[in-house]
Predict the structure.
Amino acid sequence: MKCLYFLSPSLTCTHDVSEDLHEVGIKDFYLHVISRDESGLRKQHIHSSNYLETLDVVRDGFIGAALGCLAGILGIVALLYFKPLGPDVQVPVYVAIILVGVATLFGAWVGGLTGIASENNKLARFHDDLEAGKYLILVYVRKHQEDAVRRMMQERHPDAVLAAVDSHFVNPFSNVARMTEPPQPQPPQMRSTSV
């Protein structure tokens, strides 16, 4: 399954795209729109995105869990090496496993809280477009649907630009390469006037 990213310039265009995608066979479960105008999406009955798509909860949660697990393992190694409870006291294996598990869960919790406060890493390339009022349409397609969706979008909605293709949105560590970069504003040119 692939995730196709389309940038739409307006709510009307996004609504039309949504309707046409339904005609091609894409259900709401596989169609998500990311926008700063959530109320407009609700009024038009357009399926908006969820927190896993807009926030970095999963990615930061995994990173936090890995760091917590590493800290737990280092803590157990330090406990076994320095023997703060005395040279004759042996730490049972289940206590070591519990301590590493608690450190891992604590790291995942802290990482998840950090992820709630940050934008999804995959959407960073579209941040300026979303702030400018555009709509990012995520379409999850199976291999047999991809050609039909792309053809329909080119024929009926040339103003909704295919911006990126991801092998799957679920992998939080994959990068999304943008196909079309937004035009950069040109600096004003100075005219030389001879006096």
